[in-house]
Design brief:
binds nicotinamide-adenine-dinucleotide; 2 domains; 5-carboxymethyl-2-hydroxymuconic-semialdehyde dehydrogenase activity; oxidoreductase; 16 helices; alpha/beta; plasmid; Aldehyde Dehydrogenase, Chain A, domain 2; 5-carboxymethyl-2-hydroxymuconate semialdehyde dehydrogenase; 6-stranded mixed beta sheet
């Protein structure tokens, strides 16, 4: 047996032990510290071979109501808890995530199809998210002193109340921690509705939080469908805000659903991010980054560089190298450490990605690599590359959300920027050039919430994360997260006897 086959066999045996209890009891909701079974159930299946992982408790409006009540009841004590104590509990959660990182990563790979080489790091990044916001918990309420001649204005912040967190199925563990950690650090209580396609690790996170001593009701887990539990959460009057990660059109629905109760919303939505490669760039590094940013995480990544914009003069040589590398990508079992691309999450998603292969061909782009199903069990697709696409084609405009790259040629800076900005989305942009002033011009002109110059998506947690246009509303990271989960109050103290207008005197 090769080393990677041995590692795969070991992973499968360990995973099997971890899954045994879910096979017996199902994946339960967790409300007010109690495990809650469903009156009804749905199934989660592995995209590797469509085998049943477990039945999952199906939450509905009544389940959400119970969870929202638990979050409301738990809020006053959690909000009033000294920041240093909240900090200690959040660090304990991070400790337990690290202790169970292997279990989390194995479950995540099996439930989502994401490759082990990326998921083992994503579990640890979840712990990092908790540590980062744990350290900010004691200062989350801090405000400013804004004196005038007559008044001392003092601002302070308070947690907004119980909040709803709704997460998608791609890298669900990491994304859940990214939302839940700052909410808890701010002093909010949470009802979490994870994606129905990948509920496993949300359950692990809720257990870890309970084991770490998070008081009952501070984090509640309700599984269910978007139209059922998800919708009820966004409409619940006791839930003050919704932090949502998912598709842009779901964001629109949530905004409508939350309008009656005037919900505050924070949206991290879709993307169609350009990677712009100029002829003067370090082309080997640009190639590595372009491949990594679209084919890692199965391309099921909001920040993926799904549009390659490549300057005419180097396009042929760049494409030749790209085609070689994409042909060599290893598609396989997600628990095999050698695998670079696992199966897509679900048949419906496979059908969507495969549908875009047909659309690209019909629109006249060149299918240079892939586009076909691999094997006949599971939802594996060969990494796909279309070259010589034009900016108005659907594969150059719409989010495919798979290992699917669309390459478009450009002549000069002005055309690159026009193409880059000519889509509905605006999450990230990647710029490759060794001309400093060009880098400044292009990064300034890009309609995006985040730009990386001569780099792939390397995150630094204190920096703002989020998109513009159809890619989102609001920012996460550092103090930006607290702006969402907290209310700011200004109190003005008169410094003396300033003149008060006298009416009717
Ligand atoms: P989705 O919008 O279909 O589902 C996301 C969540 O919303 C799920 O939990 C779902 O059950 C719930 N939902 C669906 N309808 C709802 C409704 N009417 N009311 C309330 N909740 C509802 O998204 P997905 O397919 O799970 O995830 C992929 C999408 O997420 C892609 O568009 C991707 O770009 C985006 N994404 C964005 C970021 C970011 O940071 N910008 C990060 C990851 C993923």
């Amino acid at each position: 047996m090769t080393a990677s086959a041995t590692a795969l066999a070991t992973h499968l045996a360990t995973l099997d032990r971890h899954l045994a209890r879910f096979r017996d009891n199902g994946i339960l909701n967790l409300i007010a510290g109690q495990d809650v079974a469903g009156a009804e159930w749905f199934e989660t299946r592995s995209p590797v071979d469509e085998s049943l992982i477990a039945k999952v408790a199906l939450g509905d409006a009544a389940t959400i109501d119970a969870a929202a009540k638990a979050a409301k009841d738990a809020f006053p004590a959690w909000a009033a808890m000294e920041g240093a104590k909240r900090k200690a509990i959040l660090h304990r959660i991070a400790d337990l995530i690290e202790e169970r990182a292997e279990e989390i990563a194995l479950c995540e790979c099996w439930d989502t199809g994401q490759a082990w080489r990326f998921m083992s790091k994503a579990a640890l990044r979840g712990a990092e998210n908790f540590r980062f916001f744990a350290d900010l918990a004691p200062s989350a309420r801090d405000g400013q002193a804004l004196p005038t001649k007559d008044h001392m204005n003092v601002t302070s912040r308070k947690p907004i109340g119980p909040v709803g967190v709704i997460t998608p199925w791609n890298t669900p563990f990491m994304l859940s921690t990214w939302k839940i950690a700052p909410a808890l650090a701010a002093g909010c209580t949470v009802v979490h509705k994870p994606a129905e396609f990948s509920p496993l690790t949300a359950r692990l996170l809720s257990e870890i939080c309970r084991d770490a001593g998070l008081p009952d009701g501070v984090l509640n887990l309700v599984n269910g469908m978007g139209e059922g539990a998800g919708r009820a959460l966004t409409e619940h009057p006791d839930i003050k805000a919704i932090a949502f990660v998912g598709e842009s059109r779901t964001g629109s629905m949530i905004m409508r659903q939350g309008s009656e109760t005037l919900k505050r919303v924070h949206f991290e939505l879709g993307g169609k991010n350009p990677c712009i490669v100029f002829a003067d760039a370090d082309l080997d590094r640009a190639l590595d980054a372009a491949i990594f940013m679209i084919y890692s995480l199965n391309g099921e990544r909001c920040t993926s560089s799904s549009r390659l914009l490549v300057q005419d003069s180097i396009a042929d040589t760049f494409h030749a190298k790209l085609i070689d590398r994409v042909n060599s990508l290893k598609v396989g079992h997600p628990l095999d450490p050698a695998t670079e691309i696992g199966p897509l999450i679900h048949q419906t998603h496979f059908d969507k990605v495969a549908g875009y292969v047909e659309i690209g061909k019909q629109d006249g782009a060149t299918l240079a690599v892939g586009g076909t199903r691999q094997g006949d069990a599971g939802w594996f697709i060969r990494p796909t590359l279309f070259t010589d696409a034009t900016p108005e084609m659907r594969i150059a405009q719409e989010e495919v959300f798979g290992p699917f790259l669309t390459s478009i040629r450009f002549a000069d800076e002005a055309e690159a920027l026009k193409i880059a900005n000519g889509v509905a989305y605006g999450l990230t942009g990647y710029v490759w050039t060794n001309d400093l002033t060009r880098a400044l011009r292009i990064s300034d002109g890009l309609e995006a919430g985040m730009v990386w110059v001569n780099s792939e998506n390397v995150r630094h947690l204190p920096t703002p994360f989020g998109g513009v246009k159809a890619s989102g509303i609001g920012r996460d990271g550092g103090d930006w997260s607290f702006e969402f989960y907290m209310e700011t109050k200004n109190t003005a103290f008169a410094l003396g006897a300033h003149t008060i207008p006298r009416l009717g005197a």
